[in-house]
Amino acid sequence: MDHVVPVSELRSYNQMLSEAQEGPHVVLTKNGYAKYVVTDYEEWQKMKATIDLFSELQNGVQSHKVEPSLSLDELKSHTKGS
């Protein structure tokens, strides 16, 4: 579960950063609403890679909807010619 902290607590950012390294994300609120998220850099890289992967998968799905599919024989002839 995320750790929720008012943005006004940024004055003690060392404690907040240590909490972000230890586990779940730290959610900073402003006027009672979630506004920012602080997380470990490695965790952020994993999340970004996941988002990039899903974006590529979505591109593939969209491409499949628009472009004609190949039959098995057409695929075989394309791969033999390469």
From TrEMBL:
Function: Antitoxin component of a type II toxin-antitoxin (TA) system.
Name recorded for this polypeptide: Antitoxin
SUPFAM superfamilies for this protein: YefM-like
Lineage: Bacteria, Bacillati, Bacillota, Bacilli, Lactobacillales
Family named by the database record: Belongs to the phD/YefM antitoxin family.
One Pfam family recorded for the sequence: PhdYeFM_antitox
InterPro entries in UniProt: Antitoxin_Phd/YefM, YefM-like_sf
NCBIfam families to which the protein is assigned, alphabetical: phd_fam
